[in-house]
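Lab notebook: predicted structure, single chain.

Context: the supervisor wants predicted structures on file for every construct in the current expression panel, including those that have not yet been purified. This is the next one on the list. No modifications to the sequence; it matches the entry in the shared construct table.
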Amino acid sequence: MFIIALLLSVGAGIAAWYLRQDTPAARAWESNNGIIDARFAFVFLPAFSMALLGLALLSIGGLSREIPWIYWSLSTFGGLLALVGLGGCVAGLFGKKIPLFLQPAWYRNRNRGARR
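Prediction complete. Output recorded below exactly as produced.
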């Protein structure tokens, strides 16, 4: 199960990175009326990837109980990643605004040229 969570977290992380790029193919989701919106692309998907990675690390830490320092470090780091990721998932699903530090530069500045 942790292998599936690890693979899904890597896949979701690559997808989140791709949606943040300033290329026409990566920005095509803006003009479509599909499932992807800015909160999904910039908040939910990276947070989902982080939560899955945290859960995978928790599982790997649980498998290494014979070596206490690996168990505690992976469990602590995985638990923190999972909590932050789950909080980000909730914010991405139910939040109203996207924090500025999570927005890529091209998204923040896309209307700046139109106003001048």
